[in-house]
Amino acid sequence: MNKLSFKRHRRLRSTASIRALVSETKLTTDDLIYPLFIIEGEQIKQEVASMPGVYQLSIDYLVTEIAELIDLGIKAVMLFGIPKEKDPEGSGAYCHQGIVQRAIRQIKDLAPELLVISDTCLCEYTSHGHCGIVDKFGVINDSSLILYVKAAISQAQAGADIIAPSNMMDGCVAAIRKGLDDAGFLDVPIMSYSVKYASAFYGPFREAANSSPQFGNRLSYQMDPANRLEALREVESDIEEGTDLIIVKPALAYLDIMREIRNKINTPLVAYNVSGEYTMIKAAAINGWIDEQAIVLEQMIAMKRAGADLIITYFAKDLAKWLKKRRDHL
Ligand code: PBG
Known about the structure:
By secondary structure, the chain is of the alpha/beta class.
């Protein structure tokens, strides 16, 4: 009988050591960014109903929270503010005593080495819940930019290490870059939500941040999930305008987009593993239907394999614990 000719791929899968040796994608706690929701008031630690394990925290709770994050080895947080008062211009977003500005100062006092990334959006601060100033025709692009520049500068003045505009206004990166430079913040990077789809996966976040639009939707500024080329146009213009890092959001339903961007550009890429992605796993895990740890680790690896350098995720604390346990067992 003729000898069969084939390749023995299983050689490289035969033991745990050899599998580790040839593993192509690594995940470490250094890759993770943890989102925090900071609420006005005192002694508030309110769990978000649709996001078990995620809390709205008042500033006084930051002492214990930041100590825990440092202990877990988490290197970066992303901040969202929940103000007491809202108005049509979202003035809480660019106020020296705003909730996020105070939280940034507090975190930088507690842990100067922890990177603070400040989400720059108006929707948590506007009474109508839109990401800009509105008139009867919708969200007005250029006058909203002025407010975004003010918000970014006030966040940098408070000590934010990175500014993350998530509002999807055209020209936002150019406007914020110029504003930061003119104010002397030449070295503060921008992490732009360049590719942000109008997604139903943001539902639980809007409960967490109290930021649902009071009328209409975000389809005139966030992207159509059907579009791929549009994502590339957004990335190109944000790079031209001076973004230093690029976020793709949501993550899991858009890994094709992540890979396509990674193949074309060399800017650091960030996946935002959004609230709905977290909620679905938590709901299934609470019911005992899935192995939460295994599924989360598999999804994180998928994001990195698709080209993400960093991942913003509500699972960051869980992951830091799991990854540490794995290391300790080696
Ligand atoms: C603010 C913002 C949103 C998210 C991050 N920044 C919500 C939105 O655009 O409605 C969503 C994050 C998540 O779902 O975890 N514009």
